[in-house]
Write a structure and sequence with these properties.
The chain is built from eight helices and 37 strands. It is α+β, with helices and mostly antiparallel strands. Among the domains are: 74 residues, Immunoglobulin-like, CATH 2.60.40; 86 residues, Immunoglobulin-like, CATH 2.60.40; 96 residues, Immunoglobulin-like (Sandwich); 88 residues, Sandwich (Immunoglobulin-like); 83 residues, Immunoglobulins (Immunoglobulin-like, Sandwich). The strands form nine sheets. Strands 1, 2, 3, 4 and 5 form a five-stranded antiparallel β-sheet that branches. Strand 1 and strand 2 form a beta hairpin. It is a single-pass type I membrane protein. One of its GO terms (cellular component) is plasma membrane. Keywords: Glycoprotein, Membrane, Receptor, Repeat, Signal, Transmembrane, Transmembrane helix.
């Protein structure tokens, strides 16, 4: 068949103004042209009839020139689209899919197919061409679900591809896991090992290379013993609790010197992952630490120290929602030792405090480098509580208040603003909870306080006080205390004196003196004037070896004469009586006691009539 080129006018009409490539399909049989892309072109159905012969020429041109293809001639009746193939089954190891296609109606039993596939968590397809009746995926990801589609063309002069088959799903076989678990611990604020909760992140199935059957925790104790704990995932509520893609080992780590955790499936187990135990013995430099918390992301950055930290393996950035129990509102991420920033993704709550910390990991040990409190979104703080006068004097006052807790502040407290008498403003740091007001004038004063965050100032709390009243109250209180102490001291002294002072015997209680007094009175009445009928005891004259006649006359007059000397020799009976008299008066009875004791006191005086003389009267030398 002889084919001539299309008219230049027609070609020029299609390609005029083309800036790149102009593709031109010229139909010789119907003298028509259509525009196509750089790889294909579509001839509208209205331009040809069934079972008609078509001759097609493709020509491309741009500003540098043009090129023409060879001529293609065919009959439209020979163009037939084969049915859609059907994927029937697959094998697990290796992963291979099989399908069927009926090409007998097309006059040929041979076929040529294309396959496209991807995993369920992917969007883009991977295509393979020139496939016959099955497709083998050479390196599938273990224990992963794949989706397949197939389309085919029956061999012939005008082969045409079928539509894509429906999606066929197949899962690859399991294999032993390779990557170690991501292990960390939530030690709270104290960072003591006994308070730490062992945690690890659940390994996804594509990393576990199969269904996770359980975990093995190896505990090395300080006394040298080793404990191996095997926890199956088929036994919920045991020693391992998994929630929100994180697992917790419930027993305490007290007395533990090393911890390793591994995961296993039906094909094997991972290499044990060691836990970096917290320690405070390591010397680390100070770092600048910056935290920027947003609703869905946590941006953390820090500066590298001037000199590299020796033996450091990596960094760990963790965050903990303030006020929640251990392991709740908690997450972490491990960072390469050369990096200085990281972004953590999560759904952070508004007006909520998070404690963000940076750790350095050294050969199964971890050390805290820096920490900061951050909020995803700041709100107005609440009213300040327990605002009161702590101390007051003539012109000075100390005010105090309670810090607003992190769970109630709704934002980081930048400062506290206090206003004295609606005039003087004091800004106090958010870490301080007191203020000294000095040099106040006497009288009534008013102070109000309110907290401030990035969102603004919160509601105010007011307090009133008077420096004059406070001074008078203090003066009277001090004076009362002093007077009370003096009274107490006086009372104590009186009690001590009453207990330590001895009683002095009353001379009138001496029976012997009473008898002598009676005798003296009787003797002196005869020689003394009536005015001296009551001589004093100081007027007695002591005479050596006096002799007294103990017998008296019935009328009361004594028979002996004073001053008369007589010789008298003491008998043994008299000496014995004097000794009994000296020893008998061992207790002096007071007049008051004599009246209280009645007859008993009188009998004692009769027996003990020489006691007073023994203590107070002169004796023979």
């Amino acid at each position: 068949m002889t084919v001539t080129a299309p008219p230049a006018a027609l070609w020029h009409a299609w390609c005029v103004g083309a800036r790149s490539v102009c593709v031109y399909l010229f139909l010789f049989s119907i003298s028509s042209a259509v525009e196509g892309t750089n790889v294909s072109g579509v001839i509208p159905r209205k331009l040809y009839t069934s079972y008609s012969d078509l001759t097609v020429l493709v020509r491309a041109a741009n500003q540098h020139g043009s090129a023409m293809s060879t001529v293609a001639a065919f009959n439209t009746g020979d163009i037939k689209k084969p049915p859609t193939p059907e994927v029937t089954h697959h094998s697990h190891q290796p992963l291979e899919i099989y399908w069927t296609l009926q090409c007998d109606d097309q006059g040929s039993s041979d076929q040529l197919c294309e396959v496209q596939y991807h995993t369920q968590d992917q969007q883009d397809w991977t295509q393979e061409k020139d496939i016959l009746r099955s497709f083998l995926l050479l390196t599938p990801r273990p224990y992963t679900v794949y989706e397949f589609q197939v389309r085919c063309a029956c061999e012939g002069p005008q082969a045409l591809m079928s539509d894509w088959s429906s999606v066929y799903t197949a899962k690859s076989s399991e294999s032993a896991p390779v990557k170690a678990l991501d292990v960390w611990s939530d030690c709270g604020v104290i960072s003591e090992l006994s308070q730490c909760a062992l945690m690890w992140k659940e390994m996804p199935t594509w990393l576990a290379h199969g269904k996770v059957l359980g975990y093995v925790v190896t505990l090395s104790h300080s006394n040298g013993t080793v404990e191996v704990v095997d926890m199956s995932t088929s036994e919920p509520g045991g020693l391992c609790v998994c929630q929100e893609k994180r697992c917790r080992f419930t027993p305490s780590l007290r007395g533990v010197s090393g911890v390793d955790v591994s995961v296993y499936n039906s094909q094997g187990a991972t290499k044990p992952a060691p836990l970096a135990l917290p320690t405070s013995d390591l010397q680390v430099p100070e770092l600048s630490f910056t935290v920027n918390l947003k609703i869905f992301s946590l941006n953390v950055s820090w500066s590298l120290p001037p000199q590299p930290i020796e033996n450091m393996d990596e960094y760990v950035v963790q965050y903990k929602q303030v006020g929640l129990p251990p392991t709740q509102g908690f997450d972490w991420i491990k960072v390469h030792k050369n990096d200085t920033s990281i972004i953590l993704r999560g759904d952070f709550e508004n007006h909520t405090a998070y404690n963000v910390s940076l750790f350095a990991v050294f050969i199964n040990r971890s050390c805290l480098l820096a920490s900061a409190i951050s909020y995803s979104l700041h709100g107005l703080p609440p009213k300040v509580t327990e605002f009161k006068v702590q101390h007051i004097s003539d012109s000075n006052v100390t005010l105090s208040w309670q810090h607003t807790s992190l769970t109630q502040s709704k934002g980081l407290i930048l400062c506290y603003q206090l206003v004295l008498n609606n005039f003087t403003v004091y800004n106090v740091s958010g870490d301080q909870n007191y203020l000294h007001l000095l040099g106040l004038t006497s009288g009534h004063h008013q102070v109000w306080i309110r907290a401030e965050t990035k969102a603004g100032l919160g509601p105010s709390e007011t307090i009133n006080f008077s420096t004059e009243n406070g001074h008078g109250y203090t003066k009277y209180l001090v004076a009362g205390i002093i007077v009370g102490m003096l009274l107490l001291i006086i009372i104590i002294i009186i009690i001590i004196q009453m207990k330590t002072c001895a009683k002095v015997p009353d001379p009138s209680n001496s029976k012997l003196l009473q008898q002598i007094k009676l005798q003296l009175n009787s003797s002196l009445m005869a020689i003394c004037s009536p005015l001296e009928s009551n001589p004093k005891i100081s007027e007695l004259e002591v005479v050596e070896n006096p002799f007294w006649d103990a017998k008296a006359s019935p009328d009361g007059q004594t028979e002996g004469m004073v001053g008369e000397e007589r010789t008298h020799k003491r008998t043994d009976d008299e000496a014995e009586k004097e000794e009994d008299a000296d020893e008998g008066y061992s207790k002096i009875i007071d007049t008051d006691e004599e009246e209280r004791d009645g007859g008993e006191s009188e009998s004692l005086l009769e027996d003990d009539h020489l006691g007073y003389e023994k203590h107070f009267m002169p004796v023979d030398v």
